[in-house]
Amino acid sequence: MTPYVLLMSQLLSFPQQPDIKLDVTKSEASRPWAFVAPHENEHVGNAYLKQQVEKFGGVFAILKQHGQRHVTLSVDGNALQADPNRIFTKRGRMSTLTKLNPDLAAQTQLLAMAEKRAQALAEFILHSINANEASSWVAIHNNTQGYDDDGHKGRGTISIKRYQKKLDSGASYLIRVHDAGKDEDDLFFITESTDYEAMKKASFNVVLQNPDVALDPAEDDGSLSVLAEKQGRRYVNVEAERRTEDGFGDNHVAEQQAMIDMLFTILNESHP
Length: 272
Ligand SMILES: [Zn+2]
What we know:
By secondary structure, the protein is an alpha/beta fold.
């Protein structure tokens, strides 16, 4: 284990649009680990992850703009929405921009400019965390209690129970699901089968992505997990429940901290 090392933390502005910032924490313990928190309204585990990066190494970037899930791109006088975890491939950028801005599909030139801006933002994020030099990419997210149509008034699409149903009904973007009996919203979503076994053994909920998402355009949603798969990198998404702005669900602070501890255990084991 690495002892405490000097920490550098800085707020970087996106050159093309300085109201978008990255809060970057860089440990001087050099490790090939890149961490990112792309959704600004999902911050339950960020402070703890910062501390652990400080202790063990890596680079961690938190996207900051106006506190929302989506970023607002200011393009040619237009305020356009984009999901910052859908901008890592061209297909994903076109999809998130046309989905979140319904009038944009008909405005070819503006759409092209927006796609370029989103690409620049993706490159800015990846550059800030030294993603090209990193062997492991880690994303930290939070999700809402339950899932849509779960019969318990749940919300959203992230739940180990929903993933199990998806797998059972033939969804092709995942190949293994382990429901450890922990809260359904606290789960790892990952790319490496060795990590899957370690997480399963340690009794965490875990979903293994199907490597074929790298080859299938229909599964290319522009998320960091798809880019990681395309580049053959190890990817781990650490997901835990959060309390929504209207008071639904709870912040699973301790649960996500335990997951972060587990993550660093396997990172330290594989890159001593
Ligand atoms: Zn998220």
